[in-house]
Amino acid sequence: MRAILIIAGQEIRDGFRNRWIVALTGVLSVFALSLTLLGSAPTGNVGVSALLVSVVSLSSLSIFLLPLIGLMLSYDSIVGDIERGSMLLLLSYPLTRFQVLAGKFLGHISILSFATVIGYGLAGVVAMVQGAGADEQAVGAFMTMVGSSIVLGGAFLALGYLISAAVRERATAGGLAIGLWLLFVLIYDMALLALLVAEGEAIGQGLFQVLLLANPADAYRLFNLSDLDGVAALSGTVGMMAEAEFSLGSLVVAQLAWVVVPLALATVLFKRKDI
Fold first, then answer.
1. Is residue 28 classed as helix, strand or coil in its secondary structure?
2. What is this structure's pTM?
3. Which of 115, 146, 194, 234 has CA 20 to 30 A from 19's CA?
4. Which residue from 233, 224, 250 is spatially nearest to 60, judged by alpha carbons?
5. Does pLDDT of 172 surpass 90?
6. Mean pLDDT of the chain
7. How many Cβ atoms from other residues are within 10 Å of residue 17's Cβ?
């Protein structure tokens, strides 16, 4: 465990030295505050909690930004270090490859968590001040959204490691990372909607639910925008997702599986990789 913490600490120090932490915190803070200030403007007229509106706005922001941030942090963590020669030096110490990968993940998820908590926390405080406080349900929904946003980022961190362990060149890893982001964030839902339109009743409810959970961004969206009635109403969670019925436990398991499974596969590939 000590070795994992040492590697995690090095990743965090590198994040400070390369201004990654400052940049990520600044980007998330600016976007989160902008969406909160713009989105909470009409809440006084419609009697909706400003914090609940922020949950909807920041959930949508998370789906676009956090997967990209996670992939940017991790896509070259293995193949990039191999190209630079630093991985060979690192493995000359009494470390296992699992410890190296686990340490990198712990360091990167710490960076992402810090940026998310600070950036979204500021937005939450502003929403509460503008809305003259918030009820218990709104506060719980906001805290759940922040926590699940970190899990979403962790899922794409793990996918980035999987890419990095599977390829031989850093440029290839970068291209695959962008392609993966486009697939899960932009293309997947459009393709699923097209499939529903084309096949209609031919797609059973069970298969439809599996297809939704096969995308970590959709699992995150369902968890945050469908569980609470107030949030679901604000987000317009209708259409294809309104027909899907999931238990809270199944959504939690799906999100965690998107972290654990790619990370395990990345560990297996890394152990077999020639350096």
1. helix
2. 0.86
3. 146
4. 224
5. yes
6. 82
7. 9
